[in-house]
Write the structure tokens for this entry.
Amino acid sequence: MVLLVRYGELSLKSPYVRRQLEDRLTANVQAMFAASGVECVVRREHGRVFVHADDEAAALRLLRRVFGIVSVSPAREIASDLEALTRFVAEDAKGLVRPGTTFAIRPRRSGEHPYTSQVLARVLGRAVQEAIPGAAVDLDAPDVRVGVEVRGPKAYVFHEIADGPGGLPVGTQGRVGAAVDTEPEMVAAWLLMRRGCRVVAARDGPRVAVLRRWDPGIEVGETRRNVLGVVRGATAAKPATDALALDPLVGLSPEDVRALADRIERA
């Protein structure tokens, strides 16, 4: 089993910037696993990061807290040869699709192959129907979605797509100072972390401990120097210094802040 990691806006950058962001994302994944005592092997290909770990549940939980990751799928890695891939998908579908239920094949290819994505979807769909009589294809609202991502000589088959926090990898956009004593302050710091900033907390505390689950590298100490700005945890708050005030909560209602706080604490 391998975890297929996707990222979004990183892929929109220039090749040079993209490589830097991908390097930081990979380093952050490794740091997150090391801080939690979970072993992993990380490798990177164009547009994807692949994580191999013995503890799949723990790995999935950790990856969903790494900023820059849009989604994660536990996947099976097999050869992209059409005959072998068809056999595997048909057999694998028997544990998911039942007679009378609907399914859809969601193919995606990268590289040169002797088949198109449309041909792949058609061949795999027919094989599943032959393996499971009574199963029907529904491309709009299927009961089961079978994802197939073909990349060069390898293919990855998956059924689950778990959301990540998105944004940019922490450490790519400089350091910001923040008090993290209240719930709004915690949410404000988290939003800047999602934009790639590394937080320097004024004081340690339980909410800093929560944020460390999202970034083990959070610093604690003097926030008046060597920071891009100071995070404000409420729209009416004044920054503790004359540094640039950063207001990530502007436009958010108290209900929005509470919902984000719940997400941060439960992850």
